[in-house]
Amino acid sequence: MKRTLLALLILVTALAACGRDGEGQEEGQAEVLVLAAFDQSSYLRRQVELYNQSQDDFQIEIQQYERSEIPEEDGVLRLQREIVSGNGPDLIDFGNGYTTSDIVGKYTEDLYAYLGEEGRKACFDNILTAFSYQEGLYAVPLGFLLKSFAGRTENLGGRSSWTIGEMMECFQGQEKERLLYPGAFKLDVFSTILTGSMEYYIDWETGECTFDGEEFRAVLEFCNGFSDRLDMEPDFSIKKAFLEDEALLLPVRIGTVYDICEEELIFDGHEVTFIGFPAAGGSGTMIESCGPVLAVSSGSRHKEAAWEFIRRCLDGPAQRELLSGFPVCRSVLEERLEDAMETEYGMDENGMEHPVVKHQVLFEGEEPVDIYSITREQADRLLALLEGARQCSQTDRKIYRIFLDEAGGYFSGDKSLEETADVIQARVSMYVAEKIE
Predict the structure, then answer these.
(1) How far is CA 205 from CA 236, 289, 398, 422, 429, in A?
(2) Which of 170, 252, 398, 410 has the CA that lies 20 to 30 A from 91?
């Protein structure tokens, strides 16, 4: 009997030692870190490959997840269930579809604790703050771009930003009839306004929504004053519309250091204000993630190793390889600005020196405009615009669908204003309550 017990004890001890670094892991075998990815990102695969080449103790494997508006098929809900049950991944890339609702419930680690003070200084802190939730950073974007509205300063009444009410007042009080922006129609204006004001009507921390108030109803009424569908002549020229002062706002999407040149070309030297989207306060320039948005699962047994991968992605070498958008690493963006301010020269087949085109501004139906470099003033303006941005423009797809479904009935005359606002309030409130439970 004693020999049998001793044999069992030896066997249990051996098995425990064998699995100490991971379930079923053999001695000397690398531990597998699972990365749940919602995008097919070649950039992310490349960074995983580099990480795996540099590591002996850990290797990352990517598992694909898919978003869906059908709860039973939604990868985000599946992911959260897996983390709660202890079977979830170590790392997550929420991808370009990331919204605040993805991390409500705190299924991921607060990355501020890992970044530390030096790490935050190395990044654009306002970008990190925009992606934080309840003072914690539960997912971090590797890259981002800016979305805003620009207009002639003289047409905007001296404003540098505006609320929804001020935007409506400015547009409706114009002495000269202008388009709000080229291509504006009911549903488009409605979704555009909500790009900047979504968080104004939804408090993710308390679950409170205010879509049944007077201000939101005024937004619906305002949008109902536009055409039912996109109505533009085939030969419509955006450049001509702004040269002749026929539109109040120019939608801008800024994702390269050269994009800051575009408004000067379109507005033909007139003073321009980046007034942004209507927002409850501060700058209306919106931040949108571009590429991977990474997080560490709260259920991971190897959080430090998982964080090491994210840290590498935030360092200079990986940030320089971003395929699109601005890097969140400050020094890498400063490098890009310095490079953009330098005019480079090459030789043609005749041995003649000529400046090298670094970027082209494209206008539909017109010849592209070549950009050889940017000025110090343009670089400073871009940096100020970037550092002044405070809000994310990520929109939850399910909430967006509710907006389009219910507002569409009002815009077509099938529902009253009051009924539409009340139904939106009820449906969004129910969804938000489910997310924060």
Answers:
(1) 45, 22, 18, 22, 13
(2) 398
More confident residue, 335 or 351: 335
Query: β-strand 91-93 against 293-296: which pairing, if any?
Result: antiparallel
CB atoms within 10 A of CB 174: 12
Reference 169, options 243, 230, 228, 219; nearest CA is 219
What does each C-alpha distance from 246 to 130, 214, 371 come to in angstroms?
34, 31, 26
DSSP secondary structure letter of residue 259:
G
Question: What is the pLDDT of the chain when averaged over all its residues?
Answer: 88
For residues 352, 355, 358, 361, the Cα torsion angle rounded to the nearest 10 degrees is -110
Phi, psi of 149 (to 5 degrees): -125, 140
d(CA 384, CA 172): 30
Structure-block tokens of residue 33:
């870190």
Closest C-alpha to 43, from 227, 327, 292: 292
Number of Cβ within 10 Å of residue 52's Cβ equals 16
230 three-state secondary structure: coil
Residue with tokens 């606002």: 421
State the burial class of residue 409 (Cβ atoms within 10 Å of its Cβ: 0-12, 13-18, 19+): middle
Q: Round to whole Å and give the CA distance between 133 and 110.
A: 9
Q: b vs e for 241-256, b when ≥16 Cβ sit within 10 Å of the residue's Cβ?
A: bbeeeebbbbebebbb
Give the model confidence (pLDDT) of 134-152 as tens digits.
899 999 999 999 999 999 9
Residue 386 is classified by DSSP as H
Q: What would the pLDDT profile of 244-282 be if each residue is shown by its tens digit?
A: 999 999 999 999 999 999 888 888 889 999 999 887 777
3-state secondary structure of 3: helix
Report the C-alpha gap between 364 and 182 in whole angstroms. Answer: 13
Contact at 8 Å (CB) between 188 and 232? no
Bridge partners, 147 (sequence order): 253, 286
Given a cut of 80, is residue 16 above it in pLDDT?
no
Instruction: Tell me which amino acid residue 45 is.
Output: R
pTM (2 decimals)? 0.86
Contact 216, 165 (CB under 8 A): no
At 165, which amino acid appears? G
Which parts of 156-280 fold into alpha helices (H)? 164-172, 186-201, 214-223, 238-243, 262-266
Provide the residue count of the chain.
Answer: 437
Least confident range from 64-68, 72-76, 110-114, 424-428: namely 72-76
Structure tokens at 70: 């059908």
